[in-house]
Amino acid sequence: MEKGNIHTEGKILNAILRLAFPIIMTNVLQTMYQLVDTFWLGRLGANAVASVSLSFPILFLVVSLGGGLTLAGTVIVSQHKGANDQRMVNYAASQTVMVIFFTSILLAVVGYYAAAPLMKLVGAGNEILNDSVAYFKVSSWGFIFMFMFFVYQSLMRGIGNVMIPMYIVLGTVLLNLVLDPLFIFGYGAIPGYGVAGAAVASIFTQAISAFIGLFILFRGKRGIKIKFFHMKPNFPWVKNLFALGLPSSLDQSSRAAAMTAMVMLVTSYSSDIVAAYGVGARILSLVIVPALGLSIATTSLVGQNIGAGRMDRAEKVGDLSTLMAVIGLTVLGMLLFFFAEPLTRFFVPDDPEVIKEGATFIKIMAPSFGLLGVQQVLNGVFNGAGLTKVSMLISICALWVARFPMAFMLSNKTDLNYEGIWWAFPVSNVIAAIIAFSYYKSGSWKVNQPQLL
């Protein structure tokens, strides 16, 4: 075991906090990209914002694929790191970079040439079709840089190095504040590209972050050294990466699809109810950020301790992370419960009906946020053990077996009406937490781990 490695020895709480806080801050910073884009595009008009908004579901599905594969890299690297096998850490990292690079090129080409039919498929009208296609085409070439940074970020998380990725994201977000208006509106000799300018600005920042990340990996001074001769395709290894990564990709994709399906239920009601749902969904997306940060930190720590042969410590990580999620997110939920009305008023200040219904939605969801955290953290445990299929099945059960059918039945077949959709969220959180916790306490995750190459 590596002497002085706080991830496999020492105080578990310190290890969790040192990993989780920078990851949470990085996730918060990454959400700033969308906010900055929306702010500047809003100066072009509602159609500009709508053009980009239509692209988000498709872009999210693409990001889900990359996110799943890079998570597999995190799991494999973390276990080799825990085993103190630096040669396999470097080899696994090199193979992961190679796979993600070629995957990103494929997705970039497909995205570019499929932009027009995809935008028509999601319902782009004539008034926004050209802008949405232009934005998506430019964004497609950015997949290459975006995925290269994602893989760097995931590999660093696998060995517990999370501060540098956070600083890189902070720098690129600040740069994006300047580049967005520059490329959207133009200045001097630089022409304005309108809606597509937001994508151009993102490509610049993504390219910078990707090159910095790859430079660090090739230089090998931060715990991982990738080499070109390790990138020769090892097909059994690549197959293993996809076997680990695709369930995670499907997990994330199913979340996007489930949220889309819930929106379809809500849109059958008045615009006030749709707006109230939108406010509640924003609050939920903010709560997910710390839950995911804690989950990713748990994945890295569990993976490293399993690699080090410290299954007892891996279980203690799971226990403590679960307790932190329950307490932290329950407290956050209670705060949101009591401040539900002023929060809703912040988003929609001049509509009493939306404020009332939005606050009701938040109050119904908020008490179950601790249980949402339980599911997310335990999914992190299962991912760290290489059981990404288990995490996927729990998420699909929560979203597609519980939440959506329940929302449909309660809103259409009971007197709850649209509030039935609100109640489907906490009930599905309870069900998912019970399933995840039951599997965790059964101990099956400790004996059914796949053999990683």
From TrEMBL:
Annotated localization: Cell membrane
Main location as per UniProt: membrane
Please state what the protein is called. Answer: Multidrug-efflux transporter
User: Membrane topology for this entry?
Assistant: Multi-pass membrane protein
* PANTHER family listed in its UniProt record: FMN_FAD EXPORTER YEEO-RELATED, MULTIDRUG RESISTANCE PROTEIN NORM-RELATED
Q: RNA-binding among the record's keywords?
A: no
Swiss-Prot/TrEMBL keywords: Antiport, Cell membrane, Ion transport, Membrane, Transmembrane, Transmembrane helix, Transport
Entry coiled-coil feature ranges? none
Q: Where are the transmembrane segments?
A: 12-36, 56-77, 89-114, 134-152, 164-187, 193-218, 283-308, 320-340, 390-408, 420-440
Q: Which organism is it from?
A: Galbibacter pacificus
